[in-house]
Structures are given as C-alpha cells and as structure tokens.
Design goal:
Strand content: 15-25%
Strand order of the largest sheet: 5-9-8-7-6
CATH class of the largest domain: Alpha Beta
Number of domains: 2
CATH topology of the largest domain: TATA-Binding Protein
CATH architecture of the largest domain: 2-Layer Sandwich
C-alpha cells in the first residue's frame, strides 16, 4: 500500500507565508523589463507580451501587466501554491547558466541544517514505498522506479543503479538516483540538484520541488 504523503516543514512554512511570497515576487518583477525577465528565467514571450513557461510538464502563462498565472490549456488560475513557486522562480532567476554539476541537498545554501528532514520525505519515502510495492526485490524495485520515472518524462541519467533527470522549470532540473540494496547495504534514493539551482529558487523552494517530484514518482509507481 502506498504511504500517505507527508507535508514537509518547508512546505508548511511556505503555505504559512504564501500571500506575502506572491506579492513580494510580483513587486520585484514589476521593476524589471520584460526582456530581462525572459532572459534571466528562460521564459518565452508570446505575441501579447506575456510570459510562457512549463512547470512539471504543464504549460502556464504569466501576464505581463500584473503577473497573474494561468494554465495555458484551461485558462484557469492554478493554486496559490503553484503561483507562488512560478513567480518566485521568475523573480529569483538571475540568468546563471545551468551547470550540469550535481550536488546533494546539503550542498545548497543552508541545506546542511535540513538535509536529514529532506532525505526523510524524499529519498527515504521513495525507497520505502517502492519496497512495499515489490516486497523488497531489488530487480523489481529498479523496474518499478524506471517505469515510474518514464511515466513522468524522466530522461535516463548514468549514475547509480538507475537515475533520471526531470526538467521542472525552464532552468531547474532535478535528478533522482536509485541504488538497489543487497545483503550488506539497504536501498537508497536521493534527489540531486545542479549547483546553480539556488540562482533560480531559494533552498526552501528547491526542497518543495524535490518533495513534489517524489510525490509524483510515488503516484506513478502505483
């Protein structure tokens, strides 16, 4: 049976200050020219001067006049939570070139203080869920992980026993790596970040992305 998703400390804190986060991001964006925003964030400017970007595989439009966020297909506003992450990404982005150098959560700014909690609701949660589904069989666990990652559009990544890259935002990629256990060592999974990730979201925002990605993998593994 799949485990019930847990709310991470970073997510609780983010939800508590959601409205100020959104308003602060909008205020920061209002002082920057559209061209600079697009250049720094990797968003596209459409014919109406609005911004377009993909977040977890769904296309969104951000209006240029007041930075309202809409799902491109449905034309509806997403949750305030999703809006806050998109707008914070756009206001934080400084145009740093993604590095393709991968680090663990502890290497992010202040990540060392929260790495154990982060690992608990990401890598450890994924391993526990998959092992419950497969009875602990390592080959089957890897097969389930690969299948779940493929369902989410993950790109195979040569690290660990199985690894996949996921483009979450235009310039934010996350990697999830799985090591199958044996008689001596337990199975492990980790979420990795490019070392330029903090140029696009604060550490608590990156923690939320990691948690959300694992939650999607858990669902896809069912």
């Amino acid at each position: 049976m799949l485990q019930k998703a847990e709310t991470s400390p970073q997510l609780k804190e983010w939800l508590d200050r959601l409205a100020p986060v959104v308003e602060n991001a909008r205020a920061q964006l209002a002082g920057v020219t559209p061209g600079k925003i697009a250049l720094r964030s990797g968003c596209e400017l459409d014919g109406d001067g609005n911004y377009r970007l993909s977040f977890f595989g769904t296309d969104y439009i951000v209006t240029a006049d007041d930075f309202s966020v809409y799902a491109a297909a449905a034309g509806k506003e997403p949750s305030s939570f999703t809006q806050s992450l998109i707008l914070t990404y756009m206001s934080t982005a400084d145009g740093a070139t993604p590095s393709s150098r991968w680090v663990g959560f502890r290497e992010l700014p202040d990540g060392l203080f929260y790495v154990q909690a982060f690992q608990g609701y990401t890598g450890r949660r994924l391993v526990q869920t998959i092992e419950q589904e497969t009875g602990g069989d390592p080959d089957e666990a890897l097969a389930v992980f690969r299948r779940a990652a493929g369902r989410l559009g993950g790109v195979s990544f040569e690290i660990g026993d199985a690894g996949f890259l996921f483009t979450v935002l235009p310039r934010v990629q996350l990697a999830v790596v799985y090591w199958a256990g044996d008689d001596e060592f337990p199975s492990q999974a980790r979420v990795l970040f490019e070392d330029t990730a903090a140029h696009y979201l604060p550490t608590d925002g990156l923690a939320i992305l990691g948690s959300q990605l694992i939650g999607r993998l858990v669902k896809a593994a069912a």
